[in-house]
Amino acid sequence: MNQADVTKLVSKLRIKVPPKHRRLSCPEGPEGRLNKLRKTVTGLIKYERIELNYYRGDEARQYAERLISEAINHGDCHKPTMEMADFWLLEKELVHKLFKVLVPRFENSNSAYTRMLKAPKPAYGRYIDKAVLELRGNPYPSLQNKQTNNRQLLQNILLEAAKYDYRQAKYAEMAEKIEKSEESSSVKTTNIEHN
After folding, report:
1. Closest Cα partner for 84 from 97, 96, 93, 71?
2. Side-chain half-sphere exposure of 190, counting CA atoms within 13 A
3. Whole-structure pTM value
4. Handedness of CA 144, 72, 98, 87 (dihedral sign)
5. Of the candidates 111, 109, 118, 113, which has an alpha carbon nearest to the alpha carbon of residue 45?
6. Which residues face 50 on adjacent strands?
7. Residue 149's Cα: distance from chain center in Å?
8. Distances (CA, A) of 45 to 65, 178, 192
9. Could you report how far apart the first and last alpha carbons of the chain are, in Å?
10. How far is CA 8 from the centre of its chain?
């Protein structure tokens, strides 16, 4: 079978997939690696937003995208797709959620089914790259701020208050300098008049 025929058999994913899989450290070897990824994909389908290590999330994202893509393309009557869903989803009630909730949500989608965002760095402790992996259209509030210049954000309110205090202090200093210069100029003019 040539390369052109193979591309028709496998649907193309909407995310970048590296040519080789990541080597996730696991004491149980390749089987433990697959078990970690199965738990991650199951958690993603169940909770629709999870926080985890960046590399593990990036690797599991590929499998979740493939699972949803195959579910959309073939449906729940296709035996290989059902076997794949049965393998990747450890909780069997999530197979129902995949086909009855997620497939209708994503069947007309033009973008990737998942979104991965880098999590903020911790203020203290050991730094490990963390990420938030989520399904698009989940019921949770958005993690991305669409309005970058929102005056109602706490940090913007605090910055405005700090600017106001700084300006008031500068105005008070300028007023004192003006008063001192006026007093010194009036003293000089009175001294000139007396002489």
Report:
1. 71
2. 6
3. 0.69
4. negative
5. 113
6. 133
7. 19
8. 11, 68, 89
9. 113
10. 32
61 alpha-carbon distance from chain centroid: 13
CA distance 74 to 10: 11
Please give the Cα distance from 176 to 95 (Å, whole number). 75
Kindly tell me the sign of the dihedral angle through the C-alpha atoms of 17, 20, 22, 26: positive
Residue type, 53: N
CB 75 within 8 A of CB 99: yes
Distance CA 103, CA 124 (A): 41
Alpha-carbon distance of 17 to 57, in angstroms, equals 13
Q: Name the packing angle between helices 79-88 and 54-74 (round to 10°).
A: 150
Question: Could you report the per-residue pLDDT of 105-159, keeping only the tens digit for each?
Answer: 999 988 899 999 998 887 777 778 899 999 999 999 888 867 667 777 888 889 9
Reading the block at residue 112, the tokens are 């990737």
- Report how far residue 15's alpha carbon sits from residue 30's, in angstroms, rounded to the nearest whole number: 24
